[in-house]
Input
Amino acid sequence: MSRRNLLIGGALALAWVIGAPRLIRLTQDEFPFEDMPGLPGFRSLGFGGGGANIALLGIGEGEAPGPNPLGSNPCAAIFGDGDDRLPVAVFTDYFCPYCPEVSELVRRLDRAGEVRAVWREWPVLGPRSEAMARVALAAAAQGAHDAAHAYLMRNALRPGPAALAEFAERFGLDAGLLARDAQSGEVQARIEATRALAKRLGLPGTPGLAIGRTLTAGRMPEARLRRLIELERERPACTA
Output
């Protein structure tokens, strides 16, 4: 072997000795997961440092704790029944600036059969957010949640009956039933249940994500979400 090749080989070996621990450390620190207190098997990611990409930090501070909304089966409480795809629950607000991007990404993965999307309407940004969440849930009662959700993520719904009638016509819905359901106790109960669930899970704001038993919040680039999905699939399934 020539002296030149020996020098190159030595340099590469030295680079590996220096660089390998850093590569290993970077792999280990890829996602700094933390165990969730009181939720065996659940872990959180990104609750502390992602404030710039989360809408409304610190919600619910100082409130008295209510009944545990997770019951004895957290997976059932978060995701409900469904098929055997990895469930991904998305906690969204229609005025959250980061929710449309995350919502569309999860919708695309759901349509491709890669995950099972579970939508949690979580209006944290005021009365108009709640009004739109109510309309989305009322549309769900007529089987049109996916289309209504996608539309409302990109378009604000004007207040008043005329705008609601136009919305109903756009999606072929019964306008009167839509208006009644939006103000129903059942819709109110679903919103309150999501609020309690988000608080129990410690979500700091929207968009919030439960990827199986991994919880995170904030803007989520596709490569990062796909990697989290890949890692979560290696763990025991979170099923009802």
In short: Residues 2-28, 48-52, 57-65 have pLDDT under 50 and may be disordered. The beta strands are 34-35, 43-45, 86-92, 115-121, 208-211, 214-217. The longest helix spans residues 3-28.
